[in-house]
Structure formats: C-alpha cells, structure tokens
UniProtKB/TrEMBL annotation:
It holds the Pfam family Maf. The record marks R17, T79, Q163 as: Important for substrate specificity. NCBIfam families: maf (TIGR00172). This is dTTP/UTP pyrophosphatase. Its cofactor is a divalent metal cation. It is found in: Cytoplasm. Nucleoside triphosphate pyrophosphatase that hydrolyzes dTTP and UTP. May have a dual role in cell division arrest and in preventing the incorporation of modified nucleotides into cellular nucleic acids. The lineage of its organism: Bacteria, Bacillati, Bacillota, Bacilli, Bacillales. Its EC number is 3.6.1.9. HAMAP family: Maf.
C-alpha cells in the first residue's frame, strides 16, 4: 500500500490517457506539464526517437523543480506508430489522419512507447521502450472518413485510439496493450524499482 512517506511520482504529461493509466498504479502522483521541443533528427531509429523524447519531457519538468521540494520521480513518455519504415506521430489535420489510416488499414504496424524516469533530487535517469505489433482490419474510405468525423483520431499517434472506438478497427495485438494507449505500466513499474518504488 502506498504511504505518505513514499516518494511522489510526477507525470510530465498532458495526455489524459497517461494520467488515467498512472492512476491505476495506486501510488501518489501529481501532473506537471512543461513544453518540450518534440523535433528530432531524421536519422534516428524509432526506439531512439521515443527514448529521446520521453527523457526530454521528463527533464523539462525536472529542470523546473524547486530545490525545497521533497524528492520525487519524474516520468516522461512518448508514443509513435511505425509502418513501412515511416514514423507516424499525431496527425496535423484530417487529411493527414486519412493518409495515415489508409496506410494502416489491412496491415500490421508497430507502436513504440518510451518511458523515462528521472530522480528529482539527483537527476539520475532510466529510459527504455516497448514495442507492440497491431493488426488493423481492412477499412473502406467511407469507414475511415466516418471514424475521422468522430474526432477521436485527432490527437493520437497513428490517428486511432485502441482504447476508444478504434478498438473496433483493430484485429489483434502482440505485446503490451498499455504500450499502445501510451504508457506501458509493466515497464514503468520495473523502472520504478530502481528508485525503490515498489507498487506491488
Ligand atoms: C496508438 C494510440 C495512441 N494514443 C495516444 C497516446 C498519446 O497521448 C498520443 C501520442 O502522442 P505523444 O506525443 O506521445 O503524447 P501527447 O502529446 O499526447 O502527451 P504528452 O507529450 O504531454 O505526454 O497518442 C492513444 O491514446 N491510443 C492509441 O491507440
């Protein structure tokens, strides 16, 4: 059971999905969001991209800590979809969503999520990632257009949400479901052990 004397978790994320998922750990946490630049060099691999951005997000919040605060672990995360060598982030507009979903439908893609934990007292960090394979059903242009019209794809990597209506267009997955939603809790709980946080 989490006790008040235990180190706090600070989730460096504006994502409502990540906020909801971290709650399931049953550990005291707060949300702090800081703008981190999400541009990366072209030559990086998907794993390098999500690890670099996760750490950047956590470090942006770490940099703003006050030295008088009790020590905490700052958590940053980043999710991308990778298909046919292409990295798909969040769509810029509906046309972009249409392009992404037209490519993903009927095929299998990979979802990469990075997680970084930074000790707010020492700046020490751990960063890692997980990959989940997702097979999407074949979809007609009309179905894709109807899905986009719901608004759900607009702020999701790859333009779909497996935890929402997007569940109906997914045929199956291989790997951690929570990795697709945006925060692999199994990986995170392992990382937290290095900071002496045992959620179970
Ligand atoms: C594939 C997929 C992605 N997503 C979401 C998770 C992330 O919120 C988003 C990927 O964008 P990110 O840039 O990883 O995260 P974010 O900008 O939403 O939040 P922050 O940087 O503040 O932490 O896509 C789903 O919710 N469901 C899915 O099935």
């Amino acid at each position: 059971m989490a006790q008040a004397s235990h180190k706090l978790l600070i989730l460096a994320s504006s994502s409502p999905r990540r906020q909801e998922l971290i709650r399931s750990l049953g550990w005291p946490f707060e949300i702090r969001v800081s703008e981190a630049d999400e541009t990366v060099e072209d030559l990086l691999s998907p794993a390098q991209i999500v690890e670099m951005l996760s750490l950047r997000k956590a470090n942006a919040v770490y940099a703003q800590r006050s030295h008088s605060e009790p020590s905490a672990v700052v958590i940053g995360s980043d999710t991308i979809v990778v298909f046919d060598g292409q990295v798909l982030g969040k769509p810029v507009d509906e046309e972009d969503s249409f392009r992404m979903l037209s490519a993903l439908q009927g095929n299998t893609h990979e979802v990469f999520s990075g997680v970084a934990c930074v000790d707010s007292a020492t700046g020490e960090h751990i960063v890692s990632h997980r990959v989940t394979r997702v097979k999407m059903k074949p979809l007609s242009s009309e179905q894709i257009a109807r899905y986009i019209a719901t608004g759900e794809p607009s702020d999701k990597a790859g333009s779909y949400a497996i935890q929402g209506l997007g569940a109906t267009i997914v045929e199956g997955i291989e790997g951690d479901y929570f990795n697709v939603v945006g925060l692999p809790l199994s990986l995170l709980s392992d990382q937290l052990k290095s900071f002496n946080i045992h959620v179970l």
